[in-house]
Design a protein that fits this description.
Blueprint lengths: L1 H18 L8 H5 L1 H12 L11 H7 L5 H10 L7 H17 L14 H12 L6 H9 L2 H11 L6 H14 L8 H5 L5 H10 L6 H15 L13
Helix pairs in contact: 3-6, 7-8, 7-9, 12-13
């Protein structure tokens, strides 16, 4: 009986081991062309381009300090070689594994990301009254609770918003973008037709979205709806 149990255990362990992913083999060509290799893995890892600043991935990593100068100097030496020793391969592989986690961002507004709070709430309230579908009347009728929308209307009736008001507004907007019903294709097409909107429309059609993916699509949608009043996503908190 013991022998049978031991054999069964070994078979289970063997099956589990076979399910483990084999480590990716890095070619000399990929190491030599490190900038293209890293850029590709960063782009492939991001759900939306804003996660790497919507710009050249290497430039973004360096600009934000996510790629240290020391690492950049090491990487720069690889272009001049055709073969690499074990230490260089190991170091490059570790860097390749590290950079996708560096762009693992979930966007949230900070108070300073709302460039003109009073003008923003005025726009939201005014556009919510239009008959044509647009982001504001979608938010007022489908996203915000009655109490939340009343707060935005109250803000619009003020001459200006103080720091406390801006903080409340920021919290409202951050709560909105967490919600599944926030982005509505038809309403956003009432605001603009563009490649950036087409991009998130396609992304939003995924059957399964993680909380981070949903949040980031909605954050991008919020920015598209009110680009004159909000900072670009790469300046938002994550």
């Amino acid at each position: 009986m013991k022998k049978i149990l031991i054999v069964a255990s070994l078979l289970v362990l063997g099956a589990c081991s076979s399910l483990k992913k084999e480590p990716k083999t890095i070619t000399n060509e990929e190491i030599k062309n490190w900038d293209k290799t890293i850029a590709k893995i960063v782009v492939d890892s991001a759900y939306i381009p804003d996660e790497y600043g919507n710009e050249d991935p290497i430039y973004y990593l360096r600009k934000t300090g996510k790629m240290s100068e020391k690492d950049f100097q090491f990487l720069s030496t690889l272009n001049t070689k055709n073969e690499f020793n074990e230490e260089e391969i190991e170091k490059f592989t570790k860097l390749l594994d590290k950079y996708p986690s560096k762009i693992d961002r979930k966007f949230f507004l900070e108070d300073t990301n709302i460039k003109n709070p009073k003008a923003l709430v005025d726009k939201m309230v005014n556009e919510s009254r239009l008959r044509m579908a647009n982001p504001s009347n979608h938010i007022s009728s489908r996203v915000a609770t009655e109490e939340e929308w009343e707060q935005i209307v109250a803000f619009s009736k003020k001459d200006d918003l103080n720091e406390k008001d801006v903080k409340k507004l920021r919290k409202l907007l951050n709560n909105f973008i967490k919600r599944k019903e926030f982005f509505d294709e038809r309403s956003w097409y009432g605001a603009e037709i563009s490649s950036r909107l087409e991009y998130i429309v396609e992304k939003s059609k995924s059957d399964v979205l993680s909380k981070k993916e949903l949040n980031n699509i909605n954050a991008k949608a919020l920015y598209i709806a009110y680009p004159d009043y909000l900072s670009p996503l790469d300046r938002w908190k994550d």
